[in-house]
């Protein structure tokens, strides 16, 4: 708590609208796929997805290794040590913008992982999947499988008979979070982890691991903001070292050392300079870095995705609580929260409301 990046009331108001727009886009994609599957083009699609189950015949293309990567050496070492022990099941957790995907991509391209899994590494972005069947379909597409209503059994057969493989499911919270699909998704993950030759890595927002999976110990702790030295190195890699270090630290103070925020502000500093960006921040706040088209280039969109999560929307008074916390100058620290020892969320909201009025 005590975060330096405040969530404004406008961001929270936009969360529902952004979620609805995402749902509409998702449905449009499904409609297009259904139309293609029922048309003459289905045969050509089948040729793309059919054949032997190798990445050379699939749509799978591994994402590039991050070129700017600082401050996660300890977490990377922990991941690699788990792979040395055997076939791990690892959950990379943390808030939006903490660099979970970058950490997973760095591990994916590490020499140790390449040597162990060679051509059997798969990285699947789960942003577009809203159910277990759609998640299975995405994985199947990366393996080169022919589209089907539910590829679960085909996937299990493939990985059971394939050489040792690594499957990374990025942003798994998208299909996992909805309560109506969570049970099926967790059962699917459980079936995948029954395969002794399949290593599984997931990235998810939050600090909760999906149930029904025996995650490899020791668990990775949720990612925290970068240390100051790593934050500076990341900033300089993007914006060069020609800026006053005092002003650089002022900019970093605005980011709370969150990798996404550092990246967005550093790119602006590279174009306009620290002084101008600090001045603009006083006028524009988070809207300064909210012109991008997705959660990796738009801070408000990243925050809104977290706010529209069922873990927030399904909890009574949660958004009211966050709105009150955003009014406080420095948030509410863990120590203050423990000392308050409030009996319920409602009483917490009431007490905070009184505090703000005072």
Which characteristics define this entry?
4-stranded parallel β-sheet; disordered N terminus; disordered C terminus; 55% helix; 358 residues; Rossmann fold; globular; 18 helices; alpha/beta; 4 strands
Q: What order do the strands of the largest sheet run in, or round the barrel if closed?
A: 1-4-3-2
Number of helices: 18
The secondary-structure class comes to alpha/beta
Strand content: 5-15%
The H-level CATH homologous superfamily of the domain at 44-205, spelled out, is P-loop containing nucleotide triphosphate hydrolases
Number of strands: 4
Query: Main β-sheet, in a few words?
Result: 4 strands, parallel
CATH fold-level assignment of the domain at 44-205: Rossmann fold
The residue ranges in which pLDDT falls below 50 over 5 or more consecutive positions are 1-9, 36-58, 342-347, 349-358
Order of helices and strands: HHHEHHEHHEHHEHHHHHHHHH
What is the CATH architecture annotation of the domain at 44-205? 3-Layer(aba) Sandwich
Large-scale geometry: globular
